[in-house]
Design a protein that fits this description.
Rossmann fold, SH3 type barrels, Elongation Factor Tu (Ef-tu), domain 3, 30% strand
Length: 362
């Protein structure tokens, strides 16, 4: 294997720590880089960046690699958080982790690493890169329960050409075993919740700092008012918790779920029962399509796609209206398809790309 200079994004967690360790063992010149992406109300109660930096420095010392900290909070606020707020204000549910990968970890971080003289960057993502026919493919990880290709689907050829994912062939249990065997101080550290600026804090409380509450009616598809909402931005399709409405004397006793938003009239549509028809969609339209290879997938060919990270890949057909817009038809109806989330396309183990869900259709 050719010795390379690799800058590793070290978060203080076990995955990125083992990533640095493995690359060091493979003989690469490894430099650790800790990214600080959030400064507003960064306190120990909800956002653990101070402790994470301490953990990352301790691990780097154990491994025997240099580490530096870099502040990308301005880039994060400009490129990720502003989009996050715009989407919620419009009644959609964005996935900032996906934008963080394409705009921060594989753009701002990559640019910084190249300025340091790096040949490649590495992260603790569970995914794989394969070079084939002069191009680069993004593949699912061996550990299907931890696969993170969904969050990486907006990467391009240039970004993938510089990316290394050493954990792609490992199970999470093996990663923790490696960390323990090599006395990494964070071997048993709990996995992060993802978005530091939210952390473990109550989501509505956080969002209310930036977006106004505009209360309105909760009603059924038939028009019956069953409660009040605090503002459409604070709810997402498929949400069950926090609705504040019980079964009622005439109800079936089944739990309530958010099934839609009437933005024009500030109404939240709710239904009873997990499998209510209003929560199931066989079709969706997507915008801002991105194909990793740079090529548009063949129209109407059978693929598989997922409409949220934790859902399984589902067989579907894609009809391309133009390079940026596509329609998806699923063999089986999908649950709680949510505007603002991403639909990600797979051909077997290969992640082809995806787009932003515009509208769910029955």
């Amino acid at each position: 294997m050719t010795r390379r200079c690799v800058v590793v994004g070290m978060s203080g967690g076990v995955d990125s720590s083992v990533t640095g360790l493995l690359l060091k063992q493979q003989g690469h010149e490894v430099i650790g880089l800790f990214m600080k992406n959030w400064e507003d109300d960064d306190d120990s109660e909800y956002c653990s960046s101070r402790q994470d930096l301490i953990d990352a420095v301790a691990v780097a010392d154990t491994i025997g690699i240099p580490i530096e900290a870099v502040n990308f909070s301005k880039e994060y606020k400009d490129r990720v958080f502003s989009y996050f707020l715009r989407e919620y204000e419009a009644g959609r549910t964005p996935n900032p982790d996906i934008l963080c990968n394409s705009e921060i970890k594989f753009k701002a971080f990559l640019d910084h690493a190249i300025r340091l003289g790096a040949d490649a960057i590495a992260t603790g993502h569970y995914a794989q890169v394969r070079e084939q026919n002069g191009g680069f493919q993004l593949l699912k990880a061996l550990d299907g329960s931890k696969d993170q290709s969904y969050f990486l689907h907006r990467l391009n050829q240039q970004q993938l050409s510089k990316a290394m994912f050493p954990l792609g062939q490992l199970l999470k249990s093996q990663v923790r075993d490696i960390a323990r065997e090599h006395n990494l101080s964070n071997h048993a550290k709990k996995d992060s919740t993802g978005i530091c600026f939210i952390g473990e804090r109550p989501f509505r409380e956080f969002l209310n700092r930036y977006l106004p509450t505009t209360p309105g009616d909760m009603l059924t598809p038939e028009g019956k008012i069953v409660g009040k909402h605090m503002g459409l931005s604070f709810y997402t399709i498929g949400q069950r918790q926090g609705l504040g409405i019980g079964g009622g004397k005439e109800s079936s006793g089944e739990p309530w779920f958010v099934s839609g938003k009437d933005m024009a009239h500030n109404r939240l549509i709710v239904v009873q029962g997990h499998d209510h028809p209003s929560l199931l969609s066989s079709h969706l339209s997507a915008i801002d399509m991105h194909w990793i290879s740079g090529n548009v997938a063949e129209t109407a060919r059978a693929y598989a796609a997922k409409t949220r990270y934790r859902q399984a890949n589902a067989p579907c057909r894609i009809k391309l209206r133009d390079p940026q817009h596509a329609s998806f038809t699923f063999d089986e109806a999908q649950w709680a398809v949510t505007p603002g989330q991403s639909v990600v396309v797979y051909d077997g183990e290969v992640c082809l790309g995806g787009g932003i869900i515009e509208q769910a259709l029955a």
